[in-house]
Automatic annotation (TrEMBL):
Membrane topology of this protein: Multi-pass membrane protein
PANTHER family named in the record: L-CYSTINE TRANSPORT SYSTEM PERMEASE PROTEIN TCYL, MEMBRANE COMPONENT OF AMINO ACID ABC TRANSPORTER
GO cellular component: ATP-binding cassette (ABC) transporter complex
Species assigned in the record: Paucilactobacillus wasatchensis
Gene3D superfamilies: MetI-like
Keyword Transmembrane among record annotations: yes
Ranges that cross the membrane: 12-39, 51-69, 75-96, 194-214
Limits of the ABC transmembrane type-1 domain: 17-212
Keywords annotated in UniProt: Amino-acid transport, Cell membrane, Membrane, Transmembrane, Transmembrane helix, Transport
Protein name, entry field: Amino acid ABC transporter, permease protein
Amino acid sequence: MWNTIVNSTPEIFWAGIKFTIPLTLISFAIGFVIAVVTALVRTSTPKGNPVVAGLWGLLKLFLSFYVWLFRSTPLLVQLFIVFFGLPNIGIQFDAFSAGIITFSLNTGAYCSETVRGAISSIPDSQWEAAYSIGMTYRQVLFRIVFPQALRVALPPLSNSFIGLVKDTSLASSITILEMFMVSQQIAAKNYEPLLMYSIVAVVYAVFCTVLSVAQHYLERYMSRYVQVTGE
C-alpha cells in the first residue's frame, strides 16, 4: 500500500499542477470578468436616449436569461453540451478549451449574483453624495462603490473559487487528464479504487485548505481600514 501511495501521489499532484490549477485560474479569471460586466449591466439603467435605454433593456433581459440558464442546469450537462453536443452543429472545441468555456460561463453566472448583491448593498446616499460633488458614474463606481462592494463580495467569491477547484474533477468526463482522471487510470491498473480515490481526495483537500488560508489573509487585508467598534 505504501509503495502505491508513494508512487501515485506525485503523479496526481503533477496532474493538478498541469491541468487542475490552470483550468481553475483561467476559468475563474474569465468568469469574474463576465460576472462584473453582467452585474454592472443588470444594476444600471442609462438615462436620456430612449433607443439606448431600449437596447440596454434587451441586453439586461439577455443577461438575466444567461444567469438563469447556467444556474438552472447541471454543470456536467453543460460540459457535455459544449464538448459533445456542439460538434453536431459544426462548432468544435478541444477538451481543455471546452472546459474553460463551460467553467467560465458557469462561474460568471453564479458570481454575477454575488457581485450584483454586493453593489446593491452600497447605500444610494453614497451615489447621490458623489454625484453632488460632480463625480461621473465611472468615478463613483471605481473610486467609491466598487472597492466597498469587492470587500463585501470577497468571502462568497472565494467560496466560488474553492468550489471551482473541486468542480474541475468533472472535466475528466470530457477527457481532460486532471487529478481525478489520473486517479481513475491508476485505479484501473492496480485495482485499488478506494485507496486511489482517497489519495486524490486528500490532494483536493490540501489545495482547498491552502486557498482557505489565503482567503483568510486576503479578507484581513481588504478589511484593514474598517474600524471595528465595540458593543
